[in-house]
Write a structure and sequence with these properties.
The chain is α+β, with helices and mostly antiparallel strands. The protein is built from two helices and five strands.
Amino acid sequence: MWTADRAFVGVVAGAEKSFAAGDDITEAEAKELGLKGKPGLATPQTKKDAKDGSATSQA
């Protein structure tokens, strides 16, 4: 699971999808969007963050 750091629009499954700061992004969406190579768009949540809901955005 990832958390959007800022608002952006990406293409997921051939359709545009808007993300707002703080939105959750699934692993499948993150992979399709190539988020690992695009710092500043989203931050991966650690397993602890995902479990207790304490993930924070660095926007």
